[in-house]
Design brief:
This protein is an all-alpha fold and 277 residues long. 86% of the residues lie in helices and 0% in strands. α2 crosses α9, α4 packs antiparallel against α5 and α9 packs across α10. The longest helix has 42 residues. The N and C termini lie far apart (41 Å).
């Protein structure tokens, strides 16, 4: 491949916007995904992404921005889990299942009685990274910066309430507040990533880079940085490959991230075999 072919995608403004948009959401979702992976909250991410589907359906029905609806339902799900687990004896996964299935079923009913939205929903379910506009880049950058600042400011508190909530309660920490704030951050990160990879694949962007990084380090700060780098690399390579292969960008990004995970895991297993031989 010559230099001219290598630089070809950057001749188009929509590709430049796509690279910027996917890069922004990949970095912040991968960083937030660190807590999802370490706490075993993958089902939470899946539930939030699917309940945001109902928010999208509502938004299309009302003629408002799909992101407002998606964000509302995503945050509602995140906070609903905290509420249900605190006011009842229901466990986290049970609370999630109740909210997940109930809200998702509502979205299906809305679609069933409101035909004509299939095209719009298809792009949001599978991603529409090539359609990212300049204004959306600004929104993504602003949201990513805000989430990064919150993570940086409250990182130690998030770690404390995530891994030792009983000790945090005893120390007088507002555990419910920080648990809720962390879940809201996860919900927001999922919603801004929908444009890049869609509702169906967004959980992979949240989890796979963080899972790969967790194979390489267990220290929280290096884990956050490495996870973000893997997410950024996956998004750029995936988008680049999709351009030349004519493949769906969101799916290609996820495949690259999954391949990196498989390679790291495979190398680790081989090294373990040689080390014990």
């Amino acid at each position: 491949m010559n230099l001219e072919m290598f630089l070809e995608p950057f001749q188009y403004s929509f590709m430049i916007r796509a690279f910027l948009g996917t890069g922004l959401v990949a970095v912040i979702t991968a960083a937030v995904g660190t807590f999802v992976v370490l706490k075993g909250l993958a089902f939470l991410g899946d539930a939030i992404s699917h309940t945001s589907f109902t928010g999208i359906a509502f938004s299309l029905l009302l003629g408002i921005s799909v992101y407002f609806g998606a964000l509302f339902f995503a945050i509602l799900t995140a906070l609903g889990v905290v509420f249900l687990t605190r006011v009842s004896s229901v466990k986290d996964d049970t609370a999630l299942a109740i909210l997940f299935t109930g809200v998702f079923a509502l979205g299906i009913v809305i679609l069933a009685v409101s035909p004509g939205f299939a095209g719009d929903l298809n792009s949001l379910l599978l991603g529409s990274v090539m359609g990212i506009q300049r204004e959306e880049i600004r929104v993504m950058a602003t949201v990513a910066l805000v989430l990064a600042l919150i993570l940086a400011l409250f990182l130690e508190r998030f770690v404390f309430v995530s891994f030792d909530p009983i000790g945090a309660e005893a120390a007088g920490f507002p555990v419910a507040f920080f648990q809720s704030l962390l879940l809201v951050i996860i919900a927001v990160a999922i919603v801004i990533a929908i444009q890049a990879v869609g509702v169906i694949l967004v959980v992979s962007l949240l989890i796979t880079p963080a899972a790969t990084a967790s194979l390489l380090t267990k220290r929280i700060k290096p884990l956050l940085g490495l996870s973000s780098l893997i997410g950024l690399f996956s998004s750029f390579v995936g988008l680049y490959l999709s351009y030349f292969l004519g493949a769906p960008p969101g799916a290609t990004i996820v495949l690259v991230a999954t391949t990196i995970f498989a390679l790291v895991l495979g190398v680790q297993k081989l090294m373990g075999i040689f080390h014990t031989a």
